[in-house]
Each structure stands twice: as C-alpha cells, then as structure tokens.
Amino acid sequence: MITQPLDLSCNTVLRSLEVKGSLIAESSKHARTIRDLLSTITSPAFSEVVVVFYELDVRWPPRGLNEVLREMYKIKRFRVAFCLETQEELRAQGLHRLTMDTGAAAAGGAYEFLPSPPSVFSRRGTRYGRL
Amino acid sequence: MVSPLGWISNDETCDVINVVSSARSPPKSPTHVDSNPRYKVSKEPYTFTNRYPGDPSAYPATTFRCSRSIVGIKRFANAVWYRSKAMVKDVVTHEHSDTLTDSRKPHWAPPEILEMIVAHLAYNPQALKACVATCSAWYNVAAPHLHRTLTLRQWDAESSHTYLNPLEYLHKLELLPFIKQVQFERGIFGTPWASPAIFDSESLQYFSALENLQDLAIADLEFFKFPMGVGEYFGQFSPRLRSVTLSGPRGTRRQLLDFFKLFPKLDDINISHYYTWVGAHHALDTPIVPIKGELRGQLTLGNFGDEGLLKDIIFAFGGIRFTSMDLHDVLGTQLLLEACVDTLETVHIHQSGF
Question: How far apart (Å, rounded) are the C-alpha atoms in residues B150 and B207?
Fold first, then answer.
C-alpha cells in the first residue's frame, strides 16, 4: 500500500518508536525499512524503541531480534522496552515468560550493546480487528 | 453507673435490668443507652445479661438470676462492681489507645487505598463480582469497574427489538450511570444489525441515562441505513464522548465525517477496515463546516484506505493534535505524521507493503 518512504524528521517531540517484534526479526525488508525510518528521526526527545509482542510471540520468541536491534542501535541511540500486548486473562503468564526470557538473554550478553537491559511491560491489545 | 457494656440504672424502682449490648461499642453515657436500640431494657424479673468484650469464648456470656435473698443481692452487687471496674478499665484503655491498632474496632482501609486495590481487578469480572458482594463500601468502589463496559450483541436474527434489552435491565438496576463504554459487536449472522430498527423511543431514553459514557465502539455501522443521519441516535453522547471506534464502517467520507463532528470533545479515534466508499449522499459536495475540536489523544487506524477522509478530518477539526498514533496499513501515513509535527510523541507504524 505504501510506496513512498516515510519521514519522521518533522516530528519534533517524538519520544518513542514502536515496532512489531516478530516482524522486524523475521522480515529483513521490514527491518531495513524501520532502520530507514529511524534514520529520519531528528527529535531531541527521542529515546526509546518499544518492541511489541503479541501473545503468540511470547511462546516462540523471535530469533535474531537482538541482531536487528544491534543494527538499529548503530543508527541511533535508544533504550529498548519490550511490550506484551495481550488480553487480561493471559497477561500474568505471558509477562512472566517474557520477563524470564529477556532476563536470560540479557544475562547471556545478548543486549550488551545497550546501555541497560530491555525493560518489560504489558498493556491491553489494540483493537485492529473487528469488534 | 456504667457497666462494661451498658448503662445500669441506679434507680431503685427499676429492679429489673437486662442489658444486651455490642461488645465492640460500649456506651459512654446514659443518653447513649436510651437512644440506642441495641440496649434493651426489659421487665423480665431479675435477669442481668452481660457480654464481655473480646473473644466470646474467652468471656462467655453470663446470666445472673437474683432472688430477693441476701445471697442474691450480694451476687448482684458483686456483678455490678466487677463490671463497673471492667468498664472503667475499658474506657481508660479506649481513650489512650491508638484507634488504628485497637483490635476491638473494625479496621477499614482508607477509601483511596481500597480504590487502588480494586483498580487492579478492573479486568477480572469474577473478582469484581466478589467485591461488590462483600459490603457496601466495597460495592461502591467495585461496581463502577464491574459495569464499566456494556456490550450489545445480536441475539436472534428475528428479534431486532430485543438487542437493546440490556439497557432496560441496567436502567431498572440503576446501573446505567456506571457505564463508560458501549460496544456494538459484530453481527453473529453475518449481517450488520446496528440499524434504526433496533432503536425505539424507549432505548433512546436509556441512551440519555448513559450520563458518563466516554467510549463508543460500533462494528459494521452502515450509515446509509440512517437516512436522517446518525445524530438522532448517537448525538446524545455529544458533550462527553472522548473515544470512538468504528470497525468496518460502510458509508461515504462525508457521512463518517459528520459522525465524528457530533462529538467535539473527541480525543481518540479508532477506525479499521475502511476503504473509499463511494455512495449516493446528498451532502457529499457541500462545503465542510469546521468545528472547534480536540483530537489530542490516540489515533488508531488499521486497514484504512481513504486518505481523503483524513484530510477532511484535519480540516473539519481545525487540525489534529494526536500524541500517539498506531498505524497499521494506512493510506495517508505521511499526511498524518506531518499534521502532528508538534504533538506526536509515540508512533507505531506497520505497513504490509514494506
């Protein structure tokens, strides 16, 4: 649908860019597009990339995510936060698993290029689909 | 004279005293006893019933039946003496004790703390139901969470007049003011059901009782089924609605725009599965009259293919000031980014075409 590259250079108070975790890890084309988008950011307030996971993503954490983040970090400095979008019934279990996986990966040095290990939080799912 | 648990009259004419009191709230004056229905004075001969404070098993209730003999009078006098002594001790302890640590008093969390606790259960209906059944204090805190969202569904393909029956039930229970979000779910029989046929005068009256409604979500709203416009039905929410979600709406660009313009206080917009829909509409070519709008919350668009509607919204509301955008396969993404140059703080962009 989109043919022209997007440009965030006009957004002067942009603080956070959110990306879908499984997508940037599995699609090199999408990861490249996000890197291009990241390079357009000029906002002095920008400080964070939020990697959004969905319920199913947490059961199978995307491989190579840390490599994608490392490439992004070369373009611009930022903190990383992992966000779990889920329904309330599955929130506690999914958040626990994501926290454990992130902690294990950080302990193994997967995020050593970051100033601090990724933080983890959750929120209710966005309603893209039909009600 | 004051007993540990009640007032005992010294009036000799009152030769029969029966004091039954609550162990947790000893009276402090005779007038308290007189005005408190829990302290009963009966005319049953020579019966004195007392209950000590604290654990009932440790201080079992005692009943003295006093005869007119000397022994009986002595026993009665002893009972009065020891109870008076205990009462004095109780009053002294009560006056010098910290009310928060006094184990004989009921302990209630401050309302603010209770609200914080219950807020963590906001998405747990079973826990909220348990809370509202606990006591009136917990009911007052938990009920707004429990009845926050009203979901209207298509129950029966033939009984469209019953779809809004939940409004009637909630009105009878006086729960409508608690509702902050109304959802019209997608029809289970594959056909859109949010049409004028389901709205009668009674249901519109119930709509007006939704005095705290802030969030309206409608699936498959077919605007062309409302020849006189949707303002007659949803315009009642105009002064207070903050968020609108339209999933799979079917209508012209102008019809959607007129719908949004009903709500000048709107902060959040969520539209999904909408593409340019060209249909007959008498106002399609008339000039757009701008309103003084807000639109400074979150914009969520998914599978959205009408950039012209975005331009019209920007014009009609005198610009947009969204602080957060979640754009999933949207035609007009760059337009939106440039329209919120000074306000956009968080953006989530996902395009399948990448």
Answer: 12
Which residues, in sequence order, are CB contacts of B63 under 8 Å at separation 6+?
B47, B48, B49
pLDDT band for position B284 (50/70/90)? low
Between the alpha carbon of residue B347 and those of residues A70, B323, B324, the distances in Å are: 21, 8, 6
Task: Identify the helix (H) or strand (E) that includes residue B189.
Answer: none
Query: Hey, which residues does B38 pair with through a beta bridge?
Result: none
Minimal-distance CA residue of chain A relative to B332? A2
Does the beta-carbon distance from A2 to B342 stay under 8 Å? no
Rounded to whole angstroms, the Cα distance separating A27 from A25 reads 6
* CATH assignment, B111-350: 3.80.10
pLDDT of residue B91: 55
Residue linked to tokens 């199913």: A56
CB–CB of B150/B175 below 8 Å? Answer: no
Torsion sign over Cα A114, A116, A117, A119: negative
pTM of the full structure: 0.73
Q: How far apart are CA A28 and CA A20, in angstroms?
A: 13
Nearest one of B247, B162, B170, B155 to B206, comparing CA atoms: B170
**What are the structural domain ranges in chain A?**
16-123
Give residue limits of the domains in chain B.
Answer: 1-106, 111-350
| A1 with B334: Cβ contact below 8 A | no
Residue B300 has pLDDT above 90, yes or no: yes
Pairing assessment for the beta strands A48-54 and A16-20 based on DSSP bridges? parallel
Q: Are A48 and A83 in contact (CB under 8 A)?
A: no
d(CA A9, CA A42): 5
Distances (CA, A) of A73 to A12, A20, A43, B349: 20, 16, 16, 18
| Amino acid of residue A94 | G
- Compute the nearest-CA separation of B246 from chain A (Å): 9
Tokens of B248: 């799979």
Q: Do B248 and A130 touch (CB under 8 A)?
A: yes
Residue pLDDT, tens place only, A46-98: 999 999 988 766 656 677 888 899 999 999 999 999 998 887 777 788 888 88
Alpha-carbon distance of A104 to A113, in angstroms, equals 16
Chain B residues with beta carbon closer than 8 angstroms to that of A13: 342-345
Burial of B126 (0-12, 13-18, 19+ CB in 10 A): exposed
Q: Tell me the backbone φ, ψ of residue B129, rounded to 5 degrees.
A: -65, -40
Q: B191: distance to nearest CA of chain A, Å?
A: 13
Cα-based distances in Å from B203 to A35, B89, B219, B338: 52, 63, 19, 42
